[in-house]
Amino acid sequence: MDQQVLLSLVSKYGSPLYVYDAEKIISQFDRIKNAFSETKRLRINFATKALSNISILKLLKKAGANIDCVSIEEVQLGLLAGFAPKQISYTPSGVSFEEIERAVDLGVKITLDNLIALEYFGAKHPGLPVSIRINPNVMGGGNKKISVGHHKAKFGIPVYQIDEVLEIEKKYKMKINGVHMHTGSDILKVETFLEAAEVLFSVAKRFEHLDFIDFGGGFKVSYKEGDPATDIEKFGKIISKRFNEICKEYGKDLEIVFEPGKFLVSESGHFLVKVNLIKEIKDISFAAVDSGFNHLIRPMYYGAYHHIVNISNPKGPEKPYHVVGYICETDTFAENRMINEVRKDDILCFRNAGAYAFTMASNYNSRLRPAEVLVYKGKDYLIRERENIEDLTRNQIITDIL
After folding, report:
1. CB burial class (10 A; 0-12, 13-18, 19+) of residue 175?
2. Do 301 and 157 share a structural domain?
3. pLDDT of residue 184
4. I need a surface site. Which of 2, 34, 298, 380 has the fewest CB within 10 A?
């Protein structure tokens, strides 16, 4: 996105500020759709947890997406965005039976990831279709915090428990209509997907009533110039061919499902912050900004890299900076990062802030969460107002004893 446009948005809406490029989101959606054009039935479920703003959900609905939700609250957001229940997949982990019942009442598609919940569901709703999430025991992902398909992860039913799943299905005369997996995020190698896919295919062959096979998400995006990303076109050709073979063996045209989150929205996002001060200590220059891990926790939590650009002084001489926040804990965004000379009140732009930025934001230190802006066809739209002190205190109750 043009730097002058971003600067004008900060002038208009203030900082910190999340800005999303709608056309980038749509183009990423179209890339996946085209990559799997050789399959007969394709469903793309946007992973709502990546960016759950209702306007973003509406944008993806218009593009042709369904959504995947991991909480009942995300389901409710999807309904508010106009998705029909049949367009919403609910794929929780470790939730209560009460929450599962709420999802049943709302009529959404349900995927369960443990035998306890599956047996409960079979006894309570034997005629209602349900899918299962398996754990393929494949290590995939950018680091261990986002690798969720290995045998020590809490997610999914281990493949060695499939016999028990079949017993539960038979006992309650259930209809297990889908098998699902998700091995992790930031997976670069097509071979990692293929290894897990073969496990999923072997499981799928054991069920008689399948309608779909869900491969989850986890495609890697580029975080800086020259950074490798998942070759979605290559992946599409290889998986489509293999999937079509499986459908032929199964005797039915199954639906192929993916759940991209970061791949669709990460590169669309720009997080804009203002520099409060420059602090020099020996050989370190700290650029302190008006944000912290309360607004962008990925660098601190995942060790994630976000490219940082000084859009106020793009031609200044490059210098190394520690870019830090205003939180009373260590909230270092980057160390010794080469950035065009940073001055007080400059605006820095963090790239790849469309996924897991606002959705992981908090009010830590009683800081307020920023506004969100969507840019579509050259026009900017405020899609979330900046919080104020009333938002922070709205649900607090001062007791009589005080």
Report:
1. middle
2. no
3. 61
4. 2
For 313-329, write each residue's pLDDT tens digit.
999 999 999 999 999 99
| Two tokens, residue 363 | 């009010």
| 115-124 and 162-171 helices, crossing angle to 10° | 10
User: To which residue do tokens 């110039």 refer?
Assistant: 225
Under the banding of pLDDT at 50, 70 and 90, the label for residue 185 is low
Q: Is residue 48 located within the same domain as residue 126?
A: yes
> Quick one: tokens of 73?
């609250």
Helix ranges (DSSP H) in 210-347: 232-250, 262-265, 298-301
Contact 250, 209 (CB under 8 A): no
Please enumerate in sequence order all residues whose Cβ is within 8 A of that of 164, keeping only pairs 6 or more positions apart, or say none: 115
Active site residues: 328
Binned at pLDDT 50, 70 and 90, residue 145 comes out as very low
Read off the pLDDT of each residue in 161-168 and give the average, rounded to a whole number.
96
Question: In this structure, what CATH number is given to the domain that contains residue 310?
Answer: 2.40.37.10
Give the pair of three-digit tokens for residue 141. 């992902």
- pLDDT score for 191: 77
The verdict on 272 and 380 lying in the same domain is yes
Question: pTM for the full model?
Answer: 0.93
Does 398 fall in a domain? Answer: no
Same domain assignment for residues 151 and 240 = yes
**Beta pairing partners, 323:** 287, 334
253/383 same-domain check? no
User: Does the bond joining 16 to the residue before it have cis omega, within 30 degrees of 0?
Assistant: yes
Predicted confidence at residue 186, as pLDDT, reads 61
